[in-house]
Specification:
The protein has strands at about 10-15, 30, 40, 50-60, 70-75, 80. It has a single domain (about 10-75), classed as Immunoglobulin-like, CATH 2.60.40.10. The mean pLDDT is about 85. By secondary structure, the protein is an all-beta fold.
């Protein structure tokens, strides 16, 4: 069932410790308003650290289901191209 026109995307991410546990107090949300983008650069990440990402699309009415979690280790500059 179609829920409406996609208005944008939300990228949910958090830092993951050395034991693989997501650190709840580091949760962040990046709101991507341009729904035609196919990639996003997430800045402000700690270089060489592991992060957990999920993404969802949203319409005027609600936010859709999140994607499966993806864990990524940042490059030395603290950037990762999603």
């Amino acid at each position: 069932m179609r829920a409406g026109v996609v208005r944008g995307y939300r990228i949910h991410y958090t830092l993951v410790n050395d034991r693989g546990v997501a650190l709840e107090d580091t949760k962040k949300l990046l709101d991507v308003v341009n729904s035609s983008l196919t990639e996003v650069i997430v800045g402000g990440l700690e270089p060489g650290h592991m992060y957990q990402f999920e993404m969802s699309a949203y319409t005027r009415r609600n936010e859709g289901e999140r994607t499966r979690q993806k864990r990524i280790r940042t490059h030395a500059a603290g950037l990762y191209n999603l």
